[in-house]
Recover the amino acids of this structure.
């Protein structure tokens, strides 16, 4: 097992915040390599910062489409999913 | 600018966040959708696309999940599932690259701030499931706290993962890579998991670690090229089932560092 510096991880409460934490670091090594189509030998590389941005964009789109936890007041919230009724196959 | 999304009033009261199921092929879009749903405050039920409709139905019941995000290629399965569940399932196609790359998406950071963050960590982040080899697949709940603790344990090596992201180890490997700042190569699930394809992938990626299943090890062990590809890895781990003694002994005798891990 590697001796990895926790570096703020112990302060996190949500697992996806780990991506945001790493995405905010100065050094941005590639952490994910993916292919597309049916290619198996040409990879596209992603840093934590790039992945964090992709996820943030996706979350915004999901939110715009209606899947979000909507803040009503600082202590009272509700979920809304009007978009799902349109997606019935 | 940061948009704070409270984890909703159920978190304030110590109740579980709502669950959304995800059905798709293991790839970048699949991973992005799961993480985005998590960021929006949902627990995510990650289901294998290889299950039967009754198995899906049972998992949705067990997790009280009434929303499914799916890739278009699984629309036939989703249709059958909707018939079984009637009005108890809301479904929508999974976001694709063109959806999240379009213009007009706000740049503001979405960040969850639980009114009482200490209450959030024990809540379910992801729900994986057992294979169903001894009955119907059973949900396995992973809290944020458990994920944050477990995913710190990595080998610190660049890795090729031939396990899909709907397999617990495949999924956790991604977060282990994020935590350890190591590179994870995701196998392309649009191509068959054959010896030739895995060898080509290993040759292209040249990872320090290969994480796979015993079946794939058996395929690779059938050729000298496969053995050599395994020898190039510093470590080979297998997951999901036991490795036959004869196969394991043969690989170790060839000088391959073989480790049995989760679920084996």
């Amino acid at each position: 097992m590697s001796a990895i510096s926790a570096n703020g991880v112990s302060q996190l409460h949500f697992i996806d915040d780990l991506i945001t934490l790493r995405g905010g670091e100065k050094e941005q090594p590639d952490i994910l390599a993916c292919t597309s189509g049916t290619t198996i030998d040409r990879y596209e590389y992603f840093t934590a910062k790039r992945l964090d941005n992709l996820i943030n964009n996706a979350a915004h789109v999901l939110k715009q489409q209606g899947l979000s936890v909507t803040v009503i007041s600082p202590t009272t919230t509700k979920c809304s999913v009007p978009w799902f009724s349109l997606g019935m196959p | 600018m940061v948009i704070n999304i409270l984890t909703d009033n159920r978190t304030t009261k110590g109740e579980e966040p709502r669950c959304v199921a995800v059905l798709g092929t293991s790839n970048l879009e699949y991973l992005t959708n799961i993480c985005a749903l998590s960021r929006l405050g949902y627990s995510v039920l990650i289901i294998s696309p290889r299950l039967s409709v009754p198995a899906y139905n049972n998992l949705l019941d067990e997790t009280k999940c009434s929303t499914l995000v799916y890739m278009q290629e699984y629309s036939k399965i989703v249709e059958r599932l909707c018939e079984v569940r009637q009005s108890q399932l809301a479904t929508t196609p999974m976001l694709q690259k063109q959806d999240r790359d379009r213009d007009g998406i706000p740049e503001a950071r979405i960040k969850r701030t639980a009114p009482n963050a200490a209450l959030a960590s024990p809540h379910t982040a992801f729900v994986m499931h057992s294979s169903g080899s001894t009955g119907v697949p059973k949900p396995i709940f992973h809290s944020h706290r458990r994920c944050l603790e477990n995913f710190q344990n990595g080998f610190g090596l660049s890795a090729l993962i031939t396990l899909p992201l709907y397999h617990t180890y495949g999924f956790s490997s991604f977060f282990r890579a994020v935590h350890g700042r190591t590179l994870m190569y995701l196998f392309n699930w649009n191509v068959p998991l054959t010896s030739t394809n895995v060898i080509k992938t290993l040759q292209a990626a040249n990872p320090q670690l290969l994480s796979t299943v015993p079946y794939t090890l058996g395929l690779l062990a059938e050729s000298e090229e496969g053995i050599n590809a395994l020898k190039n890895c510093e470590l080979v781990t297998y997951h999901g089932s036991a490795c036959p003694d004869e196969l394991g002994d043969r690989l170790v005798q060839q000088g391959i560092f073989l480790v049995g891990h989760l679920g084996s």
